[in-house]
Structures are given as structure tokens and as C-alpha cells.
Amino acid sequence: MSARDIIVRPLVTEKTMKFQDSFNKVTFEVAKNANKVSVAQAIKEIYNIKVEGVNIVNVHPKKKRMGRYEGTTSAYKKAIVTLPEGASIDIFNSEK
């Protein structure tokens, strides 16, 4: 599995941007079968940055309704990557 298959996309929300500014942590949506080691290797390959740590969270689906129609959001896996001091990833201008 290539690095581009492991890292699906960066997650950009108010909370993730606050984590990036305050704690130097970047959040990505990753493949379902990705683990901490494969995520760290993929970040190193794509962005040429050695990561300090990786935390992985399985985000469960939530029930949603549109009138009488019921459905769920998709489940996904996200990785919170801790970068070393002074390193940063510009997720808005990165080539992917």
C-alpha cells in the first residue's frame, strides 16, 4: 500500500486548526487498515518530516435525519500526528 493510499486527506476544522497552532499536531483522515507505524512512514515519505507520535481514532457513524428519511454518516479513521518542534505541514498548499 502506497503512502498516498494511507493518507486520504487532511481534516480541516476549527478544532484541528487550534491543535495545529497550539500543540503542533496535524489531523488526517487515513485508510481503514492503516496503523500508527504505516501512518508515520507515509508522513515521512510525503512531507519529509519525521513524526514524534501518532494517535489513531476510529470515528463511528452518527444517525442523521432529513425529514422522515433516516441515514448515517460514514465511519472513518483519523490520525493525529505530533510533529517535532519547529516542523510544520502546510496542508492548504501541499501537493497531493
Automatic annotation (TrEMBL):
GO terms for cellular component: ribonucleoprotein complex; ribosome
Organism of this sequence: Solobacterium moorei
One annotated GO molecular function: rRNA binding
Coiled-coil blocks: none
Described function: One of the early assembly proteins it binds 23S rRNA. One of the proteins that surrounds the polypeptide exit tunnel on the outside of the ribosome. Forms the main docking site for trigger factor binding to the ribosome.
Similarity remark: Belongs to the universal ribosomal protein uL23 family.
Keyword RNA-binding included in the entry's annotation: yes
GO biological process, one term: translation
PANTHER family hit by this protein: 60S RIBOSOMAL PROTEIN L23A
Pfam families for the chain: Ribosomal_L23 (PF00276)
Subunit structure: Part of the 50S ribosomal subunit. Contacts protein L29, and trigger factor when it is bound to the ribosome.
Tagged with keyword Ribonucleoprotein: yes
InterPro entries, A to Z: Nucleotide-bd_a/b_plait_sf, Ribosomal_uL23-like, Ribosomal_uL23/eL15/eS24_sf
Name used for this protein in its record: Large ribosomal subunit protein uL23
Keywords of the record: Ribonucleoprotein, Ribosomal protein, RNA-binding, rRNA-binding
